[in-house]
Design goal:
This protein has about 180 residues and is mainly alpha-helical. About 70% of the residues lie in helices and about 0% in strands. The radius of gyration is 17 Å and the shape is flat. This is Sigma-70 family RNA polymerase sigma factor. Belongs to the sigma-70 factor family. ECF subfamily.
Length: about 180
């Protein structure tokens, strides 16, 4: 049975409020969704199912360690979808051979969403990124959104690899602060 947005959001809120049973149930439901997502993506490019299991664990760990960043007033599945997508992109970047065969736009199909949710999320992301200096925006776009390596981003930006890493780190930190202060809306 596929868990709905409402159910997942309710379990996350209860987990954040200290309900350990609800949090375990949330992680169980998410692991099923994540497993199907990663297996489907990796199977299309001829990758092993063991990679999918590794990705499920990585994504669950990221969800767990970043759960405090979830805004309970916002939909839950886009937040999880973003984590799952970035874990897949990072994995493919580090296992370079299959990177070129996966369209980045296909990396976001965790769960069907209304079109307006994706549009609103993209709008919020654009608003947050607009607050950053141009070099930071380009570094984040190349490394985190386009999936380029730090070296590739440095080459495109005419910056050192260290400068790209610092720009990405500081830019993401500034965006997170903007989200926590409600400035992304």
């Amino acid at each position: 049975m596929i868990a709905s947005e409402g159910e997942l959001r309710r379990l996350m809120k209860a987990g954040l409020d200290g309900n350990a049973a609800a949090y375990r149930a949330l992680l169980d439901r998410l692991s099923g969704h994540l497993r199907a997502y990663y297996r489907g993506k990796l199977a299309r490019i001829g990758r092993s199912q063991s990679e999918a299991e590794d990705l499920v664990q990585d994504a669950l760990m990221a969800i767990h360690t970043r759960r405090h960043t979830y805004d309970v007033d916002q939909p839950f599945t886009p937040w999880v979808q973003a984590i799952a997508r970035y874990k897949l992109i990072d994995h493919l970047r580090h296992t370079r051979p299959a990177m070129a065969s996966v369209p980045i736009e296909d990396a976001g199909d965790f769960e069907a969403q209304d079109d307006h949710v994706g549009t609103e999320s993209a709008y919020d992301l654009d608003r947050l990124m607009a607050r950053l200096p141009e070099k930071m925006r380009r570094a984040i776009r190349y490394v985190k959104l386009d999936g380029l390596s730090v070296a590739e981003a440095a080459s495109r930006c005419g910056m050192s690899e260290s400068a790209i890493k610092v720009s990405v780190h500081r830019g993401l930190k500034a965006m997170a602060a903007g989200i926590s202060q409600g400035k992304g809306r």
